[in-house]
Amino acid sequence: MDLESFVERFAVERRGTNCLKWDALQERFGDPDLFPMWVADMEFSSPPQILQALRERVDHGAFGYGIPDDSYFEAFDAWAVRHHEARVERDWVRFATGVVNGFHWMVNAFTEPGDAVLLATPVYYPMHAAVRNSGRKLVTTQLVCDESGVYRYDLDDMEKVIAENDVKLFIACSPHNPVGRVWTEQELEQVLQLCERHGVLVVSDEIHQDIIVGDRTFVAAQEVAGGKYAGNLVTLNAVSKTFNLAGLIHSHIIIPDAGLRARYDRWAKGVVQTELNILGATAAKAGWLYGDEWLDGLLSVVRRNDAEFRARLGEFTPHIVIPELEGSYLLWVDLRGHLDPAHVQEFMTKTCRLAVDYGEWFGQQCRGFVRFNVATTPANVDHGLDLLTAGLAGLH
Ligand SMILES: Cc1ncc(COP(=O)(O)O)c(C=O)c1O
């Protein structure tokens, strides 16, 4: 589906619909009138086939406890094979009430209070909270960025941090939020190998697996080197980013290794008694079965918005580095060439009137960076860019 048709058919007003992105601006940013480019959520309605499947489910009228059937797993498997060449056996899958809850649970299930848990920063801020809030020790290795804005793992530092802190678990982000990398198989293998060598369990958050903007194919951690590291791995995924379904609170925990699965199940028995969210599962299945064309349309919008963002800021100033957007719909922008990092929050809210995610949320060293969400209409991105460039112009 082309960009114009996608926007015309699926753009929706979110303000006034109990929407975190638009309706929580006062609570989150202290000002209800900012223009929101924060939080990974979109201004598009989900594929019509998802809406139809939900309507049918709602029309049935009963919302008692549900179970997944074969058709659910067949649809998931077909999508995973078609899009990622990943094969997931039905026995490996457990359900969670969202990926964020999923990584909180993994930290609790597989580590003890006081154990060290590793993050490669900058990275999605709820991961920091998951470690801190569960009484574990948060340790970090910093991704390193070269002059053209490409972020990579610093394997030597990672190994040092793991050894010095006796790290037990690493929460990986692939594709990476916020730096937009789709890791190569070689990069993934280096990290998986390192973790395996040091007895560090890897929890791979792959929620952005379908939002592939550049040319590189996404490789699921489970498939690296023909599945060589699957025994030391838990994958968390969902189609909530793919089809804008986050409010339906449904995701997967995939544990290929029987021993790890038994450990998780023992832990889960004591704390997780939730059955499947039937609306979440209904929506996900319809997305896997019928969502390809919609996703193509979404990606064409994200590509346009990404290009426009770079063009407008590039014209305006050569000093702003934005890493190439290989995956996700989040742009990681370094404003330190223009502003004292201490003033970025005030500049964004008071001068530009924008609500964005701030660099320091993703890693202490990232004060002065800002994350912009471009999964919205071109008109919204253009408006956000008008606000941003006017603000920047005022600085000079
Ligand atoms: C890397 C990553 N993990 C998880 C989530 C959210 O997951 P959920 O809504 O399923 O809890 C996001 C949302 O932005 C994300 O970027």
From TrEMBL:
Entry keyword set: Lyase, Pyridoxal phosphate
Keyword match Repeat = no
Per its UniProt record, what CDD domains does this chain match? AAT_like (cd00609)
Stretches that traverse the bilayer = none
A Pfam family this chain is assigned to: Aminotran_1_2
Cofactor(s) needed for function: pyridoxal 5'-phosphate
- Secretion signal: which residues? none
- Molecular-function GO terms, alphabetical: cysteine-S-conjugate beta-lyase activity; pyridoxal phosphate binding
Q: Which residue intervals define the domain Aminotransferase class I/classII large in the entry?
A: 46-386
The top EC class is lyase
Q: What is this protein called?
A: cysteine-S-conjugate beta-lyase
Task: Name the species this protein comes from.
Answer: Propionibacterium cyclohexanicum
Organism lineage reads as: Bacteria, Bacillati, Actinomycetota, Actinomycetes, Propionibacteriales
